Amino acid sequence: MRKAFIAGNWKMHKTVSEAVDLVTALKGALEGVEDCDVAVCPPFVALDPVRGSLEGSTIGLGAQNMHWEEEGAFTGAVSPTMLQGMCDYVILGHSERRTIFGETDEWINKKLHAALSHGLLPIVCVGENLEQNEAGETVAVCGGQVRAAFEDVAADRAVEVTIAYEPIWAIGTGVPAHGEDANDIIRRAIRDVLADLYDEDVAEAIRVQYGGSVKPHNVVEFLSQKEIDGALVGGASLKADDFSEIVKKGLAAHLGE
Ligand code: PGA
Predict the structure, then answer these.
(1) What share of the chain is helix, strand, coil (3-state, %, to 5)?
(2) Measured in angstroms, how far is the CA atom of residue 234 from the centroid of ligand 1?
(3) Strand (E) or helix (H) holding 122
(4) Second label for 126, Cα 20 to 30 Å away, from 58, 94, 107, 194?
């Protein structure tokens, strides 16, 4: 059984002191929670202070993005070398990066290679927009994003990656996908594609999260699905009570309790 993995994507929220307060509260609220990987992904400037606050805790730390080059004239960018040793995970290809900042599939593939070669565990986001969804293109769009992201990634490295299926129309809208639909898309657009790129073992080993309006009241619907191993949580990860409730309820649902 794949271990549950629930991550909080704080996006462009929380000053450094607010970030430290949030993670301190979370640390307390999640004490004793085992059998589940939990991570928080604050803005870059809060990574180091949050890392300090997380000392002695099992909560992991992730960045929300990075460049693929180690250094250079890339104003405003942060490199894998800078994140190495600073955090465990890095979110790559979030739909906000793709749509607002123009990130392409090719960049996301370069970032994936760079993360893996620098010991960072990537969370690669894929997802269709409303128009694509309504046109019945979801499997083709998400499957294409998976193929592009994993280009030339060896099987033994691919298994270190987590994929987050995040339908764009469900992000920040309060309108999540249905658990069964998300499960079906993950089977057809993610695991079947991975089985084709690699083999069944790799397809079954890779963890897949659902993201898009995950809240304490609906997390069970997602984490009780066979293909869904966790959640990437935006808005509800900004409150310690909500996020810890999501982790506890989600873990129980994943374990079939
Ligand atoms: P949301 O965001 O939970 O606020 O919908 C999810 C995400 O963008 O990762």
Answers:
(1) 45, 15, 35
(2) 3
(3) strand 121-126
(4) 58
Per-residue pLDDT of 45-101, as tens digits, reads 999 999 999 999 999 999 999 999 999 999 999 999 999 999 999 999 999 999 999
Percent of the chain topping pLDDT 90: 99
Side chain identity, residue 253: A
Closest CA to 111 of 139, 86, 83, 85: 83
Assessment of whether the complete model's pTM goes beyond 0.85: yes
Structure tokens at 79: 């490199």
The answer to whether 257 and 4 are in contact (CB under 8 A) is no
Amino acid identity of residue 248, one-letter, is K
| 211 alpha carbon – ligand 1 mean position (Å) | 6
How high is the mean pLDDT in each 10-residue block of the chain (257 residues)? 97 98 97 95 98 96 98 98 97 98 98 98 98 98 98 98 98 97 98 98 98 98 98 98 98 94
CATH 3.20.20.70 fits 4-254, yes or no: yes
**From atom 6 of ligand 1, which residue's Cα is the shortest distance away?**
234
> b/e per residue, 19-44, with b = 16+ CB within 10 A?
bbebbeebbeebeeeeebbbbbbbbb
Taking alpha carbons only, the member of 58, 57, 50 closest to residue 23 is 50
Encoded tokens for 241: 């009570």
CB-ligand 1 contact for 9 (6 Å cutoff): yes
Helices 240-254 & 16-29, crossing angle to 10 degrees?
A: 40
The residues spanned by each domain of the chain are: 4-254
The conformation of residue 238, written as its DSSP 8-state character, comes to: G
Contacts of 140 (CB under 8 A, 6+ apart): 189
